[in-house]
């Protein structure tokens, strides 16, 4: 019997972003946990399914699933019948991470590295042609220009999130947008 995608809980559009707690930030500071969230985004998955998709031992995955459950990034769906009369516990991503800010916390750099590592693994898993569009650009911007750029990128991300179907339709895509400061010694001397 085909499994229907799990219905995700998405934060309200009016809900303001808030600073992540240290516990939430630490939960997001692991590329494997970010990959688990992505795998549970469109459909509920069991620990065994996650372990198979990630080519890891179920006990390893269970540790990370429990961390994500404890911090509210994953939620348990109702148990369902499994093979040979077993009962399976599927989990789904709650969408909580969409409304958290991790800037300014001690683990911020670790979280960004985890995000990059998770995206690299997802691109590898996507196979040839997985990247639809990419660009890398180095520019010099005044503070007001950086602020406007971040506002435009934020609007683009919000629009893409609003345009995307939440349940079942469409092909799965992901997006990473990153603006970072280059080395301070790249500034011209005067």
Care to give the gist of this entry?
This protein has helices spanning 22-28, 31-39, 47-54, 58-70, 108-126, 143-163, and strands at 18-19, 45-46, 74-76, 80-81, 87-88, 90-93, 100-101. The protein has 190 residues and is mostly helical. The protein has one domain: Arc Repressor Mutant, subunit A.
Task: Offer a few descriptive terms.
190 residues; two-stranded parallel ribbon; elongated; disordered N terminus
Can you give a write-up of this model?
- By secondary structure, the chain is mainly alpha-helical.
- It has one domain: Winged helix-like DNA-binding domain superfamily/Winged helix DNA-binding domain (Arc Repressor Mutant, subunit A), CATH 1.10.10.10.
- It is built from 6 helices and 7 strands; from the N terminus they run βααβααβββββαα.
- The protein has helices at residues 22-28, 31-39, 47-54, 58-70, 108-126, 143-163, and strands at residues 18-19, 45-46, 74-76, 80-81, 87-88, 90-93, 100-101.
- The protein has a 3-stranded antiparallel sheet.
- It is elongated.
- The N and C termini lie far apart (69 Å).
């Amino acid at each position: 019997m085909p499994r229907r995608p799990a219905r995700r809980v998405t934060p309200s559009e009016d809900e303001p972003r808030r600073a992540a707690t240290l516990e939430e930030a630490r939960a997001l500071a692991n590329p494997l946990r970010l990959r688990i969230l992505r795998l549970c985004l469109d459909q509920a998955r069991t620990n065994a399914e996650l372990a198979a998709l990630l080519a890891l031992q179920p006990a390893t995955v269970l540790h990370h699933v429990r961390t994500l459950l404890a911090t509210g990034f994953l939620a348990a769906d109702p148990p369902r019948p499994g093979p040979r009369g077993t009962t399976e516990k599927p989990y789904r991503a709650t969408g909580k991470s969409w409304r958290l800010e991790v800037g300014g916390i001690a683990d911020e750099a670790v979280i960004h590295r985890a995000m990059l590592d998770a995206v690299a693994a997802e691109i590898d898993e996507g196979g040839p042609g997985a990247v639809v569009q990419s660009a890398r650009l180095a520019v010099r911007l005044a503070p007001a220009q950086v602020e406007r750029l971040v506002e435009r990128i934020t609007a683009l991300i919000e629009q893409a999130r609003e345009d995307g179907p939440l349940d079942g339709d469409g092909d799965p895509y992901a997006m990473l947008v990153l603006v970072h400061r280059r080395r301070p010694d790249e500034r011209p001397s005067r």
